[in-house]
């Protein structure tokens, strides 16, 4: 990815950051800021185009091969108001009863080699520039940020896993090189609500012991 992003629901703050389900143990959500402030009552929902994340180009974190890709699901309205939050809670439960794509929305899985697979979810409908079997290079644009699947506002969901099948794989830790607003560079994973700009590619750490929740 390029540009200025804010980390949310990441493993630097809590593990599991999401859930162990679908290899999301060390997942992170990323959104561009500034964005419309959440409201309690009105407007109930906003169009995804109201958010700077929507349509932002996504770049491959490393060389790899596409092993799964889907971009036919619609980009829905935001769910950030009080009524929207209540709605998305029920919606998430219903989506969890279906296939993984109902939660991930439009998504892409890259085989990075050495047993690591990168997942990008909530992509913009019709934005995929690659197909299953294609090779991609680090820094190559492959899709755009969207608001499909189980998403309250346009953002990118990212995680690494140890196999191509998201229903049986386990999450892997990863590190990034990134720069904060003061120009300082770090290697690791930004904590929740940290504003940063990527300055390198993602690297898989050694697989960590997996514990059932």
TrEMBL record:
Keywords: Hydrolase. Transmembrane segments: none annotated. Its EC number is 3.4.-.-. CDD domains: M23_peptidase (cd12797). InterPro entries: Cell_wall_metabolism_enzyme (IPR050570), Dup_hybrid_motif (IPR011055), M23ase_b-sheet_dom (IPR016047). It comes from the Bacteria. The keyword Hydrolase applies. Residues 55-161 form the M23ase beta-sheet core domain. It holds the Pfam family Peptidase_M23. GO terms for molecular function: hydrolase activity. This is M23 family metallopeptidase. The lineage of its organism: Bacteria, Bacillati, Actinomycetota, Actinomycetes, Kitasatosporales.
């Amino acid at each position: 990815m390029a540009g200025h992003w804010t980390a949310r629901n990441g493993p630097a703050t809590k593990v599991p950051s999401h859930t162990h389900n679908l290899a999301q143990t060390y997942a992170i959500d990323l959104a561009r800021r500034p964005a419309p402030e959440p409201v309690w009552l009105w407007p109930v929902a906003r169009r995804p185009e109201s958010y700077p994340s929507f349509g932002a180009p996504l770049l491959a974190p490393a060389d790899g091969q596409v092993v799964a890709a889907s971009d036919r699901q619609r980009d829905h309205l935001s769910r950030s108001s009080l009524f929207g939050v209540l709605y998305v809670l029920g919606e998430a439960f219903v989506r969890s009863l279906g296939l993984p794509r109902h939660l991930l929305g439009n998504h892409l899985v890259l085989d990075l080699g050495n047993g690591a697979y990168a997942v990008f979810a909530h992509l913009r409908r019709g934005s995929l520039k690659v197909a299953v079997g294609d090779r991609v290079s680090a820094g190559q644009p492959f899709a755009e940020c969207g608001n499909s699947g189980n998403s309250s506002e346009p953002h990118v969901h990212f995680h690494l896993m140890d196999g191509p099948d998201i229903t049986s794989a386990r999450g892997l830790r990863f590190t990034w090189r990134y720069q904060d607003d003061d120009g300082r560079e770090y290697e690791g994973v930004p904590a929740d609500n940290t504003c940063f700009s990527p300055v390198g590619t993602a690297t898989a750490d050694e697989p960590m012991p997996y514990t059932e929740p």
